[in-house]
Amino acid sequence: MNILTMSCWSHSIKYHLFSWGGESLLAAGLVKRVGLGGTSVSLKAPGREEETQDVGFIDHQGAVALILDTLNDPRHGVGDEAGRIGAVGHRVAHGGERFHHSVVIDDQVLDAIRELKQLAPLHNAANIAGIEAAAGLMSHIPHVAIFDTAFHVTMPDFAYVYPLPYEWYKRFGVRRYGFHGPSHIYLSRRAATLLGKPAADCNLITIHIDKGVSLCAIRNGVSIDTSMGLTPLEGAVMETRSGDFDAGITSFIMQQLNISSREMESILNQKSGILGITGWHAERRQILEAASTGHARCRLALEMEAYRLKKYIGAYLAAVGSLDAVVFTAGAGEWEWFARELTLGGLECFGILPDRERNRAAGSERKEALITSDSSPVRVFVIPTDEELVFAQDVTAILSGEYSGHLHQNYSFARPDFVPRQPAV
Fold it and tell me: Which residues contact 79 (CB under 8 A, 6 or more apart)?
């Protein structure tokens, strides 16, 4: 039996096909421009070149059907392996206070996910569309929800309650939840292995830098604080999201521009962050190139991003205590030595001693790397994340009756003999 995992976003779906237990990756791919027209689907199988097909316009339901058709394609798919899909693991951004670990999806679970849609409008709606489409096409097999928020349920109340009217928390669930949980799980277990210590003995700061950015303060292997909040909007500077800012600006700008709360929400989520500063709908590579040739606003955006990350590292050092390691992953965290160099510069007083050459070499081959000097009291690693492996192994454990939540799960990637796979997409 094989496991299909899906991460559904507003206009894309990432999928992976694993053997049972996630022991091997059989295929992976990405559907782009879902619901926009000009849609394409890619498939990469081990030992084969990636293949891409253009398909025109499809919605999420059509995209899930396209994934199954692509996997089953007699010429370009994976043959009998696609016919052996026995379960689907679905990434779900927001689980609120109800879901503390991964669960099998039934009608009650899906209704609860729908109720949480307003807390992650850019994510949960697409997650629901993917679940409904997949369940409609594969109703004979179990579907499992893996929640971004679940890793952070260990935060103490003084870290997750906001200094707002307390009844907002009691009535509406207004509190910090955090996101990117599967990534932070993977990073914390891999960092512990590289440190040669049990995860329960490790104090870490993990940093996931992609379109969305989140940091996590981990004490004794569990999350005690994280930068994203009620929604994925709070925290560090992101690609199009603002991150932290004075809440008074919201009402001020709404009055000045005479805009609605929905319009303001769209600006903060889709027109702010690095895009808001640069004014560019551009790839990171283009922004880096422009900054290096003197484009002031591109340079400003990168410096703002690094400064916010640096401040969070300092704050989480105070929260965690004696620190073992800082970990960078995903997108800019993995590929961009420049972003890491800007962020880590000046942290020597905290025992973080970057090695310039190691940092500049890291990320070029998507391998785990140490980027601090041998004498650094606090180590800094670059670790390519593998959220989909977390999905697959949660699904396997749940359906095998061996799952007791991520805190006690015996993940393969926490073992000393584990060999990280090269991500397919």
Answer: none
User: CA Rg, the chain, in Å?
Assistant: 21
CB 359 within 8 A of CB 343: no
Task: Using the predicted structure, report yes or no on whether residue 278 has a pLDDT greater than 70.
Answer: yes
Mean pLDDT of 123-150: 95
327 and 205 Cβ atoms separated by less than 8 Å: yes
Catalytic member of 69, 73, 107, 148: 148
pTM score above 0.70: yes
Structure tokens at 47: 């030992």
Q: Does 148 participate in catalysis according to the annotation?
A: yes
- The whole-chain average pLDDT of the chain stands at 93
Domains of the chain, each with CATH number or no CATH: 2-147+387-414 (3.30.420.40), 194-238+282-382 (3.30.420.40)
| Tokens standing for residue 275 | 């895009």
Yes or no: say if 329 and 385 are a contact pair by the CB < 8 Å rule. Answer: yes
For residue 326, name the pLDDT band (cuts at 50, 70, 90): very high
